[in-house]
Structures are given as C-alpha cells and as structure tokens.
Design brief:
5 strands, globular, alpha/beta, 3 domains
Length: 280
C-alpha cells in the first residue's frame, strides 16, 4: 500500500488523483492518508546498539540470553521487546541442530547449493547479506555483495529501512559493474524471500539462487566474516556520531578493504589484486 501511494503524482495535470488511484487499485482515501513512520527514541537506539554488539560477541545467544546481557548493561526490558528488536534488526541466533520455527513464504526459499563446492574463480559465487549499523543518534542497514573467491566487495548500499528495494538496486548495480555470478547466496530473511528479490535474480536467467539453512552461520561464513571485520575494525572502533559520518566511514572502509587490506586466505594479497587477476 505504501509503495503504491508513493507512485501517485498529486501535482499531475494529465491524470487526476482519483484516476491514478483507480489505475493503482488504491482507494482515494488511502492516497490522502498520511502514513506514520516510526521514529525510534534514544532509548531504542541505545538498546539496539547494545544488542548488535552482544550478538557479534556471542552469535549463539537467543533473545533470553541477550536480554540477560542487556540487564547487565542497565537496560531492563522484557523478552517480547527484546525479540521484537532482534526481529527488526534481522538478528538470528546461530546454533547447531534443527530450527523448528515456521518459515514465511516457503515457496520462495531455495536450497543451499554450496556444500562441498570448491570455489575456484571470480563470479562463481556471490554472497549477499544485511547488517545493522548503529550510531549514538540513529542507525542504518548495510547490504553487502561479496565475491566469495576474491573476497572483493562488488556492491554495497546503506538504507534507513529494511525494505527490499535497496537490496534489489544493489544487486542490479553489482551485476552491471562486475558481470553475473553463477550462484548468489543469501540467508532466508524476508528481504531475500521477497517476490521483488527473487524476480530480480530470475530475470538474469543464468544465476542460480542459494540460501543458507536456518540458523547455520557457516553457510554464509565469508559474508559474516566481512561484517565482523567491518564492525570491529571501524564501526565499534571509530563509533561515528551521526548517520552522515557512518556513510563516510563506510565508503572509506570499503575502498580500504578491497584495495589495501591483505587477507591471509588470499596469501596476503588484497581482494582487488585477486579479483582482477587475468586468470581469476
């Protein structure tokens, strides 16, 4: 509904609002209804920033154990609120064994295709994921697309919402600049099981969709490892004060990570060196 409303041109001289609503199958009253956007208060920002740090230190902690850690930090909130914040931040506890929670949109989940696969060249596999990035005054979400062979970040974007459109735009720009991967792997989050995301990947025809098993951290280990490096080497260390500073810091880190930061797994070469090798 909100997306349809955004398509309405209230200043159009060619089509009335009534006619635009009819074409969009949207009631006219809804078009004029002001949709309230949730603005988090300072307490929510502080708690979510604390949850993010706890999760990266202890990725196996579920909502109960995270709530207990929050209490040690002076945040006294209940299980339901902790669970809701974790859900909004797309945080899932990683632990061995089956996850018996019901899957939403099961028809749009795909099997994990990379178990036992030897990664031998660039654009063979890309991993995509989203993480929460907090500042003292607000937060954003970072989506990153990484080439698994070279560890090169082929695409990234920051957004203040978890909507799928910024994920789709990042994928499209990555393909435009670096070509198509054979496989793109994600978790089973709502952004990656959405119709818009699946349709985006399917339009390239040759790209296969792979998804992690629920609660299996190792299935997307390279992408998770990048987030850990980004947060411990920059976000938690510099702790930018504003969203603008966060954007600037992230842009600088992406360039540093791709072009200057050596990797032991790459024989101390940089991702860019490996990614752009002639035989890669």
């Amino acid at each position: 509904m909100e997306d349809k409303k955004a398509l309405i041109d209230f200043d159009s001289k060619e089509l009335t609002v009534k006619h635009q609503c009819k074409l969009l199958n949207l009631s006219r009253s809804t078009a004029y209804y002001e949709i309230k956007v949730h603005q988090p208060d300072q307490e929510e920002i502080n708690i979510k920033n604390a949850i993010d740090r706890i999760h990266f230190e202890e990725p196996a902690f579920g909502c109960r154990r995270i709530r207990n850690e929050l209490k040690k930090l002076g945040f006294f909130i209940g299980i339901r609120r902790t669970r809701r914040y974790m859900r909004e931040m797309d945080i899932i506890a990683f632990y061995p064994g089956p996850n018996l929670s019901k899957r939403d949109l099961q028809a749009r989940t795909y099997p994990y295709l990379l178990r036992g696969v030897n990664i031998t060249h660039r654009n063979q596999v890309w991993g995509i994921d989203i993480t929460y990035c907090g500042t003292p005054k607000g937060f954003m979400y970072l989506v990153v697309v990484i080439d698994w062979y070279s560890r090169f970040v082929v695409g990234w974007s920051l957004s203040n919402t978890m909507k799928t459109d910024f994920v789709v735009r990042t994928v499209e720009k990555s393909v435009q600049e670096h070509g198509m991967p054979e496989i793109i792997n994600s978790d089973q989050g709502s952004q990656f099981t959405s119709k818009d995301y699946i349709d985006c990947i399917k339009k390239y025809e040759s790209i296969k969709i792979s998804m992690d098993g629920r609660g299996r951290a190792k299935d997307n280990a390279r992408t998770e490892r990048f987030f850990r490096s980004y947060k411990w080497e920059r976000l938690y260390l510099l702790y930018p004060e504003t969203v603008l500073e966060l954007k600037q810091m992230t842009k600088l880190y992406m360039h540093h990570y791709n072009w200057r930061r050596p990797h032991q797994a790459l024989e101390d070469k940089t991702p860019a060196t490996v990614h752009f090798e002639k035989n890669a």
